Amino acid sequence: MKTQSELEKDITKDVHISLLQDTLKDLRKENGFIKKTVVMLVIMLFFAISGIIFQGLYHQHKMFKFLTETEFSTEIHMDSDLNNYNNMNVERK
Question: What's the pLDDT band for 85 if we cut at 50, 70, 90?
């Protein structure tokens, strides 16, 4: 038969082992949650960056389309009045 001190040693060892096992399980759950969170944040960051890039490309395309479809004309009217030299009027429409 075991003595009282031997039983206490066995019980404390079992308690320590079970405590460490519970702690290890909790840490594994926390690490899994952190990994899922990091993956979701990376995916969100990817979508945000790609959205910024595609929005910039879209607006650049609209700007070039506007510039190619819009006509600019310039009229230059020069007065040949002898009293007023170097008189030039520029109108843009």
Answer: low
